[in-house]
Amino acid sequence: MSGLVIDAERCIGCKRCVRACGSAGIEVRDRLARPTAGCVLCGACVDACPVGAISIVRDEPSGGHDLESYRDIWVVAQPCPDGGVERVSLELVGRARELAAPRGCRVVAVLGEGSGAGGDAALVLVRAGADEVLRCRDDRLAALDTEVHARWLVGLVEERRPETVLMGATAFGRELAPAVAVRLRTGLTADCTVLEIDRATGQLQQTRPAFGGNLMATIVCPGHRPQMATVRPGIFPVPETLDDALSPLEAEALRARVSEVGLAPDVAGRVRVLERESSAAGASIADADVLVVVGRGIGSKKNLPLMRRLAELLGAELGCTRPLVEAGWLEYRHQVGQTGVSVSPRLLVSVGVSGAIQHLAGIGGAQAVIAINEDPDAPIFGASDCCVVGDCIEVVGELVRLLEERG
């Protein structure tokens, strides 16, 4: 078992380890160093000890001797109340298809839903690119109970040994992913914006903003399997294969790739849903086809009506950067970026946005970006297809006038 080991014969009780520890993970009692519950095994005390009395014992990586037995990329799909699946699940299937190609492995979607679920979510996942769908229809899975889903997924992973498991960073996904990872004793990277894979080793390179969004960190999990990551909605495009029309014979062939799996009879949730209420927040900007995003460069809250008018004329939704939400100009549901909503519209018009790294991470999926900013060196221009240098109020005012004249 992993832990801090103290050699009682060497320890001199000097307390240098206590002074070196930043988490109150070690103390000295009766002239002997002893680990506490705060120890995070960082090793600072090991380096500080002048007599070499402290060491760390770590568990062997789970499956570290047999990593080659793990195969395939799994996407845990989240069902919708209407019988479909969340958009982010389809985005992840499409990206998993690209990651699996150089490895020659399969893409498997995992779907748990109630026994009376309508629609054909499993068929949609196959059309998105899944080689197989593992579906469990059981009323215990209908309520999106984290404990029930976690025990079901852990059993499947231990039996079938996928090398990578991906989930959408929805409210449910953010709760479920760590519950699965801790049971499997493996690593988890949250809110990834880039996923790449090493063709030879299958090592997943998981990139996400770190240190408050000031830099991008690439994280790997070399000694444990499965590798796990959550990805925010809107980072990757939905596969174009979903637009293809299907004949009845083709649909039947795709349904043959759906495998039914069970849920152990002793699995039971401890949460009972008494009532459901729909959110009144309105449509998410993550689903917008055209988006106008405004930043501090618009100068004042009194200029928001002009921006709303531009969005109306373009048939767009209105988004904003984090400072505008913090100032109370717009609600959080309008916030675009790493700390808000990741978007992938067909067209994004950026007005008065400087382009901080955490904001750029949230608009990486946009197909075309038009940026308006008076600073010619603004970082947003590096991520734009069309750059307009000028006073954003004057430029937008003229643009609104021209659009209104066109009717």
Automatic annotation (TrEMBL):
CDD domains: ETF_alpha
InterPro entries (UniProt xref): 4Fe4S_Fe-S-bd, 4Fe4S_Fe_S_CS, DHS-like_NAD/FAD-binding_dom, ETF_a/b_N, ETF_a/FixB, ETF_alpha_N, ETF_asu_C, Rossmann-like_a/b/a_fold
Membrane-crossing residue ranges in chain numbering: none
Pfam families reported for this sequence: ETF, ETF_alpha, Fer4_7
UniProt keywords, alphabetically: Iron, Iron-sulfur, Metal-binding
Function description: The electron transfer flavoprotein serves as a specific electron acceptor for other dehydrogenases. It transfers the electrons to the main respiratory chain via ETF-ubiquinone oxidoreductase (ETF dehydrogenase).
Protein name: Electron transfer flavoprotein subunit alpha
Organism of origin: Enorma phocaeensis
